[in-house]
Design a protein that fits this description.
- By secondary structure, the chain is an all-alpha fold.
- The protein has one domain.
- The chain has six helices and no strands.
- The chain is elongated, with a radius of gyration of 19 Å.
- The relative contact order is 0.12.
């Protein structure tokens, strides 16, 4: 997957887990995948050594960065969604509510 599409893909995975996909929730919050032993569980790193992370670790990093919470708290809806960063003008909202006001 190209690097520019990875964040969007992770956002979709987190969204599906929050929406109730229990199998995905279990994978993203699996302790064996969050903290694998690189010596005993080499099969989790089949492409390379342990610097590459599992899907659960990638989800944990994503949630820590964008949600400021653990992946389990995000996946099980124990935290509110983060703000989007969009700025909505009060003037635009008041104009939508009252059509007769002048801008």
């Amino acid at each position: 997957m190209p690097p520019e599409k990875r964040l969007g893909f992770m956002q979709q995975l987190i969204g599906e887990a929050r929406a109730g996909n229990t199998k995905l929730r279990e994978v993203l919050t699996n302790q064996k995948l969050l903290r694998p032993n690189p010596i005993e569980e080499k099969h989790l790193f089949y492409r390379s050594e342990s610097p590459f992370c599992t899907i659960a670790q990638a989800a944990q990093y994503y949630c820590k960065r964008y949600w400021k919470a653990n992946v389990a708290d995000v996946a099980y809806n124990r935290v509110e969604e983060p703000e989007t960063g969009e700025v909505i003008s009060i003037r635009a909202v008041s104009n939508d509510n009252n059509d007769k006001t002048n801008p």
